[in-house]
Structure formats: C-alpha cells, structure tokens
Amino acid sequence: MPHTTLVSTAELAAHLADPAWLVFDCRHDLAKPESGAQEYASAHIPGARFMHLDHDLSAPATGNNGRHPLPDPQAFVRTLAGAGVDASKQVVAYDAQTGVYAARLWWMLRWLGHENVAVLDGGYAKWTKEARPVSTAVPPPAAAQFVGQPRAVPIDAADLLKSLGRPGRVLIDARSPDRFRGENETLDPIGGRIPGSVNRFFRENLDAAGCFRPAAELHQAFSALLGKLPPQAVVHSCGSGVSACHNLLAMEIAGLPGSQLYPGSWSEWCSDPARPIAKG
Fold first, then answer.
1. Which end of the chain has fewer surrounding CB within 10 Å, N or C?
2. Tell me, what's the pLDDT at 65?
3. Which residues are catalytic?
4. Which domains does the chain have, with CATH numbers?
5. What pLDDT, in 10s, does the model give residues 237-258?
C-alpha cells in the first residue's frame, strides 16, 4: 500500500533495504543554510540522499520572487531523476523533527504528479531517539527515468491580488503569530501579512513529541477556518513557501484535500511596495 502523507519510523525501518523505497534527508536551518548538509555528513538514515532547500528545492532568489522560489519544473525533474526517483518509487522525506522542510519536498513531488511520497512522522529526532540505525555512507548515483509535469500553475501574487476582499477564498498563513502580526520579523525586510489572511502556525499541527496530531483533530481545526467553503478554496502562504507546505500536508492528513500553495508567500508579496499589507 503506497504512503501518500505520513510514514512511521517503524514502517521506514522495515523498508530500509527495499529498493522500491527512496529516502531523502531535507534537514535545514534558515539561519545556518549549510548546517543541514553538515548534519547529513555526520550521520543520516541509511541510504538517504540529501536535498538542500536552497540548492535543490528552490531556484535562485532575485529579490522580488521570494526567498525560496520554485525551481524550473524540468530542472527539478532532472534533479529527481539523478537521485533515482522514478514512477515506481515510494519516496520518504525527513528533516530534523517538525517535517517542515520534508513537507516542501513532499509538495513538490506531488506538484509534478508523483503521489507515492510521504513525510517521516517525527523526523530524524524520533528516529534517533528510538536508537534506529544511522550511517555516514553516501549512496552511489542511481539515475532513473522520471517523467514529471506540473499539475497546475501555483497561485501567484497577481492572482492573489485580484482576489483580495472577495468571498470564496481562504488564505492561511503558517508563520508564527508574532510574525503574522508584523512583529519580530527577522527574515524579511518588512513585517506584516497579506490582507485578509488568517493564522495557523504550522507547529500547531504537531503534538508534544513532534508528530502530527490525529487526523480528526486536524480536521476539526482546519474546518473551523474553512467555515462552509471547500478545501479547494484554501491558499497556503508563509514566509517563503516552505512552512505553508506543512499546513497543506496537515489538511491532506485531515481528509481535506485540494488546497493550494502560494510559493512566493510573504517574502515575494512584500517585495513590491504597491501591494497592500496588514499588521496587528
């Protein structure tokens, strides 16, 4: 049975030697961008390959396209194929604990039409806490044939601007409450939020152990934000299109599929002074 949202540490451990499974380490620190690669070199789940948020999961930032713009789809297809991804693979992504960076890879694979991708629930922290095996060995190259096409063009700033103030769309911001209010902004030059957005801090999707909350709890929380609107009415944003994927994953776990991502998020939105902002 394919895994399309989450996979447990026990399930992954049982498939470490399974050639049909492919694991990616997505550990990252926004304040120390090379720390993930360093941690990977020190130890990682056996067989895992490293994906860098800035170099593999993003295109170069220009100053007006957000801090982590999506890469060219076909360039990313080549990256995945070079790492051994093909249509038959069960992909598992993990990061240090929360799943926020792993969720970015999860969303990007689904964006290209690959459904069999899941995030390791509890991440590397849970894996090591359970004393499961780790390795320093880097898997050899395993090029594959991967044919991926974007399912749809993600929401962009122009589309979002046209819909501001109109009924029928819910914009959910995954940032911390203080950054949502425009306070303590350290990553972007301007604090604030897109007008009309509501806050759902991505960490609220997790329990005290760093695993995702039960589907029923997530369903109740997101349904309260949706009201009578369908899940397809939701657009997710955050600072740069990363933690927003965590909320999108949480909605899928909750049985509320079909929400959308605004990849540019606040870092792109605030780069144009003509776009309105809200604070407080």
1. N
2. 95
3. 238
4. 6-129 (3.40.250.10), 157-269 (3.40.250.10)
5. 999 999 999 999 999 999 999 9
